Amino acid sequence: MRIGFALPQFGALAHHPEDVARFARQAEELGAASLWVGDRLLAPVRPTVGYAGTDTIPPEFRVALDPFALLATAAAVTERVQLGSNVINAPWYPPAVLARSLTTIDALSAGRLLVGLGTGWSPEEYEAVNVPMGERGRRLDETLDVLTAWWTTNPVEHRGEHWTVPASHIDLKPATRPHPPVYLGGFVPTALRRVARRADGWLPIAVPPGPFDPEAAVVRPMRRIRETAEREGRDPAALDVILRVNPTSAATAEDIVTVLTRAEAEAGVRHAFVDLTYAAKDVDQALEQARRVLDRAGAR
């Protein structure tokens, strides 16, 4: 299994942005296969919707570094690791701006970008970017249309429900051809159908040390995705899966490796990454945790 880690983007890990580059370099040296970012904008004082089924927002989200800046930083100081997002909340951004940022990062990294997109869950964040949250699904679909056009045609032109891109010469294309792999998050039926129709893969989640059932968490949803893809005339075997492992502060390296081992053995997961936002207090501790996970998983 290829094992990556989230960059120090949130909470205590993000209070020293000058350590982002050091983390990226040293994680690559330790044997990490990939480095990842997420996308948080606000930690509302009185949230309408809490995080992960709760009625609160984790204090870690009170500090959030920009995902594009972190990916560019990691691209500049590494040579081998892939660089992924899980996830960029695509409806927050004009697609032309998003396309320019992603294309730049893929070019800077010589084709190492993995594009993970989603829609988010916070009404307050949508309010802050002045985008109607009820339109998020349609806006994600239209964003995918613009990204495909931006990456594969020239001149580029798009006229849709929410955005217009006048016919324009866009000579900078991704280093990855025809475009970087696009993964989508989400668990509701509509989101899984979108993966089947539009994406290169899906982004499930595990939260150790809580119970992890590879069949329920990965196998059954991927089976539905692949069955839908086949009905849509796509090759179901071409659809990939990358597992996000979000350990709590109570998780040990052994707990994390148990999830990784079971995900590979029981669900065929070949690529996963570990987000240490809740499990490490500073970058040095995060790097030590990463070393332990890679050692115990036999990935170094």
Automatic annotation (TrEMBL):
Recorded coiled-coil stretches: none
Domain of life: Bacteria
Record-linked Gene3D superfamilies: Luciferase-like domain
SUPFAM superfamilies cross-referenced by the UniProt entry: Bacterial luciferase-like
Gene Ontology annotations of biological process type: alkanesulfonate catabolic process
GO terms of molecular function: alkanesulfonate monooxygenase activity; transferase activity
UniProt keyword Oxidoreductase present: yes
Keyword list, A-Z: Flavoprotein, FMN, Monooxygenase, Oxidoreductase, Transferase
Protein name: Hydride transferase
